[in-house]
Design a protein that fits this description.
Strand content: under 5%
Distance between the termini: 64 Å
Structural class: mainly alpha
Radius of gyration: 18 Å
Shape: elongated
Number of strands: 0
Length: 115
Amino acid sequence: MPIIGPGPDDPEYDDYDPAWKTQDTPFRRWLVEKLTEAGFIGPEWVASLYAPVNRYHGLSREDLDLLAIATRTTIDAVQAAHKADLGQWAREQELRDHPDLAVLDADLDRIRHRS
């Protein structure tokens, strides 16, 4: 049976987005901060591996264990940072789905920063 559309080897469908290398997310910032505090060499590189994973595939028990050890924190701390990031991501998705809310959000941010 012929494949209609891009094939399985098409880069568009390889489950990778180049923006993941630099996408600024709360979890990425948390990882870089904690890895830097722990004296880890190359925290940005590690963050570029795990920050996209937490949003698109979740974090496995092994990921949580590894990140807790590397950041010298606890599994609960890693999960809290992960869940906070997912919360922000859900809000971003909601704003994308309802562009009119983006205008309201920007207005509320301006009002908050005035004080």
